[in-house]
Amino acid sequence: MRIAYLHSGSIPSVYANGVHVMRMCDAFTDAGHEVVLHALPGTTPADDIHAYYGTRNRFEVRTHGQPAVPGAGKWIRARQVRADLRRRGVPDLLYGRDPFALLACSGLAPLVYETHLLWPSRSIRAVERSLFRRPNLRRVVCVSQALADDYRAAFPELTAQNTVDLVAAHDCADPVPLDGPVAPLPGRERALRIGYVGHLYPGRGTDVILGLAEQLPDADFHLVGGTTADRTHWQSRCRQPHVYFHGHRPPAELAPFYRAFDIVLAPYQRRAYCAGGVGEISRWVSPMKLFEYMAYGKAVIASDLPVLREVLTDGVNCLLRPPGSVTDWAQAVTQLAEDTALRSALGKEARRQLTERYTWRARADRVLPAVPAAAGPESR
């Protein structure tokens, strides 16, 4: 099947949405589909996009700039994407996270819309409502069951339409070999290495990590990721010499860091935000880093949030602790530091569950509907 993935973000970029989109296109290609990704031009340097993200397949990536026209830029770009699709041959399926481009192209082929938050913007919700009325919409994919439930409540027409499937599909990771290069981390040779990989936005728990460093002087803490501005902000507030900020690394370069960590953290707070504070996502979040931690068989300490309990079970594949309690998190780190058998058991079970339930390849099959090979009515 020929799939056009319509993305409203930049490729390449430092943002998690780009990683997610590239992983999905890679998985679609692994499944035997012909994929073309349509995205905004990149915002971070990369000589080779596929090498930057570490994809297995070299699917085509086409970029379309967005004019700086208030209120109209997204629609102008959406029409450019539509014109490009018609010029190059209409695909069998339109898939994506860009409601503007999907709506503009909706007459061309069957549609699948994926969403990772219930948008606070009324204008975007209006676009979604129009999209949900399109007769060739086949599926709406939500990144968690909590988000799917909230979409049902916000858009009753999704439940009323028998032709539209509402699917919950968590983020994922690829199974990885446990042996391989290990990052030569700075710090003390015998210190426990506590790791965090991800952005440093408000609500991601960076303050919890710095609080842990104050309470646990015998452990070294390593934070990988974050924009230059966010990293500078937190470094200026860090007073502990055993906290190391490694900055943003291309997704393809993260494996040695994961292997180097003894314990990994996912300290999401009760209010967490996307890049630029676009949306509050703690109710629906499905962090990719969590699944990557699981793929490497690491002992995870995570925030005890209802949405994370869709994947995590305390004492089985992780330890869950109250989001804002540094004391409880310090107790969990101490418990795992002293009980290596528990640390190993949690990591092994997490890796087993990842391999059986949460791979990108399995997600690709879950989110794709069966569609006819022929393209839509406006393709000729």
UniProtKB/TrEMBL annotation:
It comes from the Bacteria. Coiled coil: none annotated. Keywords: Glycosyltransferase, Transferase. Residues 19-155 form the Glycosyltransferase subfamily 4-like N-terminal domain. One of its GO terms (molecular function) is glycosyltransferase activity. The keyword Nucleotidyltransferase does not apply. The keyword Cell inner membrane does not apply. InterPro entries: Glyco_trans_4-like_N. Pfam families: Glyco_trans_1_4 (PF13692), Glyco_transf_4 (PF13439). Transmembrane segments: none annotated. This is D-inositol 3-phosphate glycosyltransferase.
